Description:
Rossmann fold; 3 domains; six-stranded mixed beta sheet; 14 strands; globular; coiled coil; NAD; Histidinol_DH_monofunct
Amino acid sequence: MMKILKKAQERTEEDRKELSRMVQEIIDNVRGNGDEALKEYSRKFDQCERVSMRVSKEEVREAYMQLSPQEVADLKAAASNIQAFAKAQRETVKPLENFSPMPGIFLGHRIIPVKSCCCYVPGGNYPLYSTALMLIIPAKTAGVERVTACSPVMKGTGKINPKTLAAMDIAGVDEIYAVGGAQAIAAFSYGTEEIAPVDMIVGPGNRFVTEAKRQCYGQVGIDFVAGPSEVLVIADGSGTPEIVAADLLAQSEHDVNAKGMVVTTDEAFGKAVMEAVERELEQLETADIARKSWETYGEVVVVSDLDEAVNLVNEYAPEHLELNVQNPDALIPGLCNYGSLFIGENTAEVFGDYASGTNHTLPTLKAARYTGGVWVGTFLKTCTQQSMTPEAMRNIAPLVSRLADGEGLKGHRQAADIRFTSQK
Length: 424
């Protein structure tokens, strides 16, 4: 019997109509007025007076000068792991040639990178320079010819955070633009005088960015529509409450809408985690955000056994899933809905956030039911092809003619029949 020790507040549907209207207005303005609209929003939202949104090589050099040698080395070390895993993933995606379902018919597919993409790197509460690595490196590894990146400026400065700029450069970006928000999504979707449009936009953002991606989808490809960050921990009571508490608060500090959840078979452990959260909040520098997030959306649930835990997790489909249990391998085959999996107490979710090599741009709000996170394959198209011999054509044409006729599509039938009759 499931028991809830701490219940999360239900997420209320935001005023979607008003948000949709505001974002549509921004998109229309950018489509109609191009760079002038972007500059208007930059002045309004970021107190930015940049003449050109394109970041120069000189600005990138200046950014490196503001970083310590250790900071640069750390970015390069994280980039190395991310790139190594991306290359390994790329090697698993292969073309297929000359598959024959019947004699004389040859089927296959090619793996083709998208031509261009924009990697949206948030500014927001924190400069998420790690996201620059997570988006740009897989795109470059996939073979995207033109990889652009954008990020909001630090308010009042007219410049992107120097660590974010360095991360973009280390990742191998081709173009960088100092612009953010829904207006950036519109610019890269439809193009302006300075910004050429792209084929795909990836990366997280606030609700305006998310809504803009939703509205521009179709004009441009997107990774997915992402919401607030989530972590769920399955625990059997064998772990350390303070470690679980730290992982919950690591997500909770993202923003006040983030969610941390524990599903445990041990009620005493669940209570110990809640107590450990309160102790850490007393000394956590980001406690203002983390406390509000935890109090509003934190959840601790006690279940009768690990099978029930697995069923609950698959229903919830969390972004990050941690297995803090004695025998995690026994649970893995039953788990099918999650963004990324962290196996065992040694494997902190934050390791994946920064440097272990897997991607941290992951599906939220139950999107893990139908998609995984950003990876090399996000930027690849699998495009099929076929060819056939005259004999194979004569064999298949009557079948296709009958199938087309059954649907009432006489033009389809004729396209099959004419080949059959002309080859007799």
